[in-house]
């Protein structure tokens, strides 16, 4: 469903509510796949009609942080994940826009790693499970 305020660019229509893109051709879709985080952020602000103060509040960051992102500074991985939750946009879309490699883009170093990555993908994550997993993995790093 398109929002009441769709944004058009080169024949594409972006749904402000769902972050979806409806494109008349694959060339238009490629345009959106190459968008970086600052481009995505500018478009989101335009779609929501946010000024910088409103955008910072909605994204849960300080206005100076937002300004740095708009100027092209790459946000931290955790910040991108949090932004994706706040605006209900697919996390992988924003992570790719911010230049972070996806797990599927990085080959496993060995069979153990491949198995663990698959297990992580199969888990239904929530905050307590993530906290436990982070603790276990960090403890392993200290060994």
Rg (CA only):
18 Å
Query: What is the class of the largest domain in the CATH system?
Result: Mainly Alpha
Helix content: 55-70%
> How does the helix and strand content classify structurally?
mainly alpha
Strand order of the largest sheet: 1-2-3
List keywords for this structure.
single chain, 143 residues, mainly alpha, 434 Repressor (Amino-terminal Domain), 3 domains, three-stranded antiparallel beta sheet, elongated, disordered N terminus
Structure described in brief:
The chain has 143 residues and is mainly alpha-helical. The chain is built from eight helices and three strands; from the N terminus they run βββαααααααα. It folds into three domains: 34 residues, no CATH class; 65 residues, 434 Repressor (Amino-terminal Domain) (Orthogonal Bundle); 36 residues.
What does this structure look like?
The protein is mainly α and 143 residues long. It folds into 3 domains: 1-34, no CATH class; 38-102, 434 Repressor (Amino-terminal Domain) (Orthogonal Bundle); 107-142. Helices cover 57% and strands 6% of the residues. The chain has 8 helices and 3 strands, in the order βββαααααααα. The chain has helices at 26-33, 37-48, 52-59, 63-70, 77-87, 91-97, 111-122, 127-142; strands at residues 7-9, 12-14, 21-22. The chain has a 3-stranded antiparallel sheet with strand order 1-2-3, covered by helices on one side. A hairpin with a 6-residue loop joins β2 (12-14) and β3 (21-22). It is elongated, with a radius of gyration of 18 Å. The model is unreliable at 1-13 and 15-33 (pLDDT under 50).
């Amino acid at each position: 469903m398109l929002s009441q305020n769709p944004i058009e660019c080169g024949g594409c229509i972006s749904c402000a509510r769902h972050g979806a893109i409806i494109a008349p051709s694959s060339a238009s879709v490629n345009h959106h796949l190459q968008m970086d985080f600052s481009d995505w952020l500018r478009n989101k602000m335009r779609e929501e009609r946010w000024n910088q103060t409103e955008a910072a509040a909605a994204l849960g960051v300080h206005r100076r942080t937002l300004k740095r992102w708009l100027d092209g500074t790459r946000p931290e991985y955790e910040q991108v994940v949090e932004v994706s939750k706040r605006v209900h946009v697919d996390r992988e879309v924003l992570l790719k826009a911010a230049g972070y490699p996806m797990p599927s883009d990085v080959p496993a170093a060995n069979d153990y790693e491949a198995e663990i990555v698959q297990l992580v993908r199969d888990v239904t994550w929530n905050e307590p499970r993530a906290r436990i997993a982070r603790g276990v993995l960090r403890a392993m790093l200290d060994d």
